């Protein structure tokens, strides 16, 4: 390879990031096994020691991915918003309110797949990513294009952290370390199978590892209510490096508020990162008949020939919204890092088109500005 040692190291680091974050086949054919014969609500299956998806799953080869990345780079990369990244609006939420709130149900989009949910007096955060890069390296890999609206230190004390899988844009070491050191004690980390070992190697011991369909009850921060958190399948994969693909599990989460009587009166869905598969209709909806609010990815979907297996596009996100019978969904996994080729601000536009084609109102599936908080339920005073 020609070029300076620094450029060679940067090229090698790019290859590492591409293979461990975008996804390449671990087989010469590019075809990963599926577990179609597994019972409907069984835990995740393994083939040759690696977890497998429930439905057919195909990743591109490393050669195809490298060719795409080279063409993308030569073409100038992903188009930024018209006014540049500095023009992307970022709100500073009412942090005093978020720190003291123990009664209202709220949701705040921090950015990418990081959502702060306040429910049943508890602060729950999904896939916390507060760092400048989504990468194992400080000098290469996706750089945050839009600032975080608040830091972990400025935000409310987090009670529960939900990790969907271990890709760097969803599992960030510095962020989970900061949460584990937060004043008032660490949160409960709920993670897929295999990620608990990574956590414990970092000294984080307040961790629960889940297989698909496992559930955990968490006592409420207010009264006799509790949260029931269930880990559910997604169509994706896990990896922190080139050689460990499919060794850790992936999925989404159902978060339910249970009253003292045992009645569920609020249900939230976090999809994590996923391609489309019938599992949302045939499995998740079969177990949970409706959702009050959902966070569903709408970004990082182009080019489709490489990303369809692992990332839904906005039209597929709307399909998931409908199949799960969600009252209102929030589009996540966009507008923070440059991961793929669609223009930076394209996902909300494609979402609007998909909603119109599905004859759904714009408020059925919304996007937020970074840092935006919405009241989902106001408690009786």
Structural features, described:
- By secondary structure, the protein is an alpha/beta fold.
- The protein has one domain: Ribonuclease Z/Hydroxyacylglutathione hydrolase-like (Metallo-beta-lactamase, Chain A, 4-Layer Sandwich).
- The chain is 23% helix and 22% strand.
- The chain contains nine helices and 18 strands.
- Strands 10-9-8-7-6-5-18 form a seven-stranded mixed β-sheet, covered by helices on one side.
- Strand 2 and strand 3 form a beta hairpin.
- Helix 8 crosses helix 9.
- It is globular and about 60 Å long.
- The termini are far apart.
Strand and helix map with partners:
Elements: H1 5-23, E1 31-32, E2 46-47, E3 50-51, E4 57-58, H2 62-74, H3 95-100, E5 105-111, E6 114-119, E7 122-126, E8 160-162, H4 173-180, E9 188-192, H5 195-201, E10 207-210, E11 215-219, E12 226-232, E13 252-258, E14 264-270, H6 279-287, E15 291-297, H7 304-307, H8 314-323, E16 326-332, H9 346-357, E17 365-366, E18 373-377
Parallel strand pairs: 7-8, 8-9, 9-10, 14-15, 15-16, 16-17
Antiparallel strand pairs: 1-4, 2-3, 5-6, 5-18, 6-7, 11-12, 12-13, 13-14
Helix pairs in contact: 8-9
Task: Please give the radius of gyration in angstroms.
Answer: 20 Å
What is the string of helix and strand elements? HEEEEHHEEEEHEHEEEEEHEHHEHEE
Q: Portion of residues in helices?
A: 10-25%
How many extended strands? 18
**Largest sheet: number of strands, sense, barrel closure:** 7 strands, mixed
Can you tell me the CATH architecture? Answer: 4-Layer Sandwich
Q: N- to C-terminal separation?
A: 68 Å
Low-confidence stretches: 5-13, 27-31
Structural class: alpha/beta
Domain module tally: 1
In round numbers, the mean pLDDT is 90
Q: What is the tally of helical segments?
A: 9
> What is the class in the CATH system?
Alpha Beta
CATH topology name: Metallo-beta-lactamase, Chain A
Strand share of the residues? 15-25%
Sheet with the most strands: spatial strand order = 10-9-8-7-6-5-18
Which overall shape is indicated by the principal axes computed on the Cα atoms?
globular
CATH superfamily descriptor = Ribonuclease Z/Hydroxyacylglutathione hydrolase-like
């Amino acid at each position: 390879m020609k070029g300076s040692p620094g450029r060679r190291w940067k090229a090698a680091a790019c290859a590492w990031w591409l293979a461990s974050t975008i996804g390449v086949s671990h087989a010469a054919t590019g075809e990963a096994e599926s577990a179609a014969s597994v019972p409907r609500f069984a835990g995740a299956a393994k083939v040759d020691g690696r977890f497998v998806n429930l439905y057919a799953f195909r990743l591109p080869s490393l050669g195809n991915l490298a060719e795409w990345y080279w063409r993308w780079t030569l073409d100038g990369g992903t188009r930024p918003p018209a006014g540049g990244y500095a023009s992307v609006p970022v709100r500073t939420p009412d942090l005093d309110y978020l720190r003291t709130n123990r009664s209202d149900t709220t949701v705040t989009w921090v950015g990418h797949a990081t959502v702060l949910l306040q429910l049943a007096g508890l602060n729950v955060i999904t896939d916390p990513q507060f760092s400048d890069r989504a990468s194992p390296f400080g000098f290469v890999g996706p750089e945050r294009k839009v600032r975080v609206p608040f830091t972990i230190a400025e935000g409310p004390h987090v009670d529960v952290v939900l990790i969907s899988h271990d890709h760097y844009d969803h599992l960030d070491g510095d962020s989970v370390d900061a949460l584990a050191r937060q004043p008032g004690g660490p949160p409960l980390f709920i993670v897929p199978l295999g990620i608990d070992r990574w956590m414990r190697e970092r000294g984080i011991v307040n961790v629960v590892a889940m297989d698909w369909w496992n559930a955990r009850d968490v006592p409420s921060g207010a009264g006799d209510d509790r949260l029931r958190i269930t880990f559910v399948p997604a169509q994706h994969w896990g990896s922190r490096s080139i050689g460990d693909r499919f060794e850790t599990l992936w999925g989404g989460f159902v978060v339910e508020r249970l009253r003292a009587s045992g009645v569920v009166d609020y249900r939230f869905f976090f999809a994590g990162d996923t391609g489309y598969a019938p599992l949302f209709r045939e499995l998740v909806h079969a177990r949970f008949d409706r959702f009050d609010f959902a966070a569903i990815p709408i970004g990082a979907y182009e080019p489709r020939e490489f990303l369809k297996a692992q990332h839904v596009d906005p039209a597929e996100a709307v399909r998931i919204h409908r199949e799960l019978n969600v009252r209102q969904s929030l589009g996540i996994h966009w507008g923070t890092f440059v991961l793929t080729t669609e223009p930076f601000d394209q996902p909300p536009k494609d979402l609007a088109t998909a909603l119109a084609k599905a004859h759904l109102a714009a408020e059925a599936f919304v996007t937020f500005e970074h840092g935006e908080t919405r009241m989902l339920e106001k408690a009786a005073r």
